[in-house]
Amino acid sequence: MSSHLNEHGITHLRHVDLAVPDYETQRTFYKDTWGLTEVGTDGNLSYLAAEGSPEQYVVRLRRDAEKRLDLISFGAESRAAVDALAAHLGSQGVQLIGEPGDLQTMGGGYGIRFFDIDGRTIEVSADVATREHRKIEEGEAIPVRISHAVMNSNNLAATKEFYTDVLGFKLSDSLWSAHMGDMMHFLRVNDWHHSLAIATGPHPSVHHVSFEMRGLDEYMRGTGRVMRAGIKKVWGPGRHLAGNNTFSYFIDPSGNTMEYTTELEKIDEDQWHPSVYDIADPMTQDQWGTADPMSEIIAKESFNDPDRGLFVAPPV
């Protein structure tokens, strides 16, 4: 991995943390249906790891009366990078939740938390312990790692600018519509096509969280397993144009959209020029033609409930 792709030393997506009212149902879903491994619990917290990933966990569930996004966590190169980022954010008027310090969550580490322009809690951390992980076997239809997170914003341009101008994310591609203008911006911090994307929506909320499968066969087997479990499939299987990755979207028990994907594009930084893809072109949404055409009904499924956690730091 290039050490200087992101000017602030942000390296990759670590985990997405969700608060859910139906905590036990969600724990069961992520373990038994989605294929994550619960590596620890702490009171009202459940830490869920992907077997192929060195990250301590890729999803954290927290029991709460209100459904919300607790935080999105990204890695940093070093403690010095965390400190420098904190100083940079302060100079940009970004609201810090606290000074950089030792993290109290599984795997420890040193990090900073702050609110993005929409009020999401973002964490950037270094020195988090890695966990024992393994190679996912042929035919094993469980997530290898977290792939990316997509967030809805009702102020797409400003949110994209926050991530590119303040945090140094790079724009990979955009989706556009003749009626609506810009619909989605794909943003990267390493050579994966995107670690984060911002979608236009009626309110800030989770659009979806995506998990990388070992290959096409495992991706299809996983898609089928989740379908057989009676989980509502929103869209897929298909293959996007931007990022060239496959997609199968499902609604988890608390109404968050989760995706299985594979073969997300890797970018040659020196050769890359962002494209704008028209969503009216059927090839933009699905190169294979196997998924239902994108419709307003499908789009609305990913609007999600308005996030109740904006500009409110999670308790842990």
Automatic annotation (TrEMBL):
Pfam families (alphabetical): Glyoxalase
PROSITE patterns: VOC
Domain VOC: 12-127, 145-263
Gene3D superfamilies xref list: 2,3-Dihydroxybiphenyl 1,2-Dioxygenase, domain 1
InterPro entries with a match to the protein in the record: Glyas_Bleomycin-R_OHBP_Dase, Glyas_Fos-R_dOase_dom, GlyoxalaseI/FosfomycinResist, VOC_core
Protein name in the entry: Glyoxalase family protein
Lineage of the organism: Bacteria, Bacillati, Actinomycetota, Actinomycetes, Micrococcales
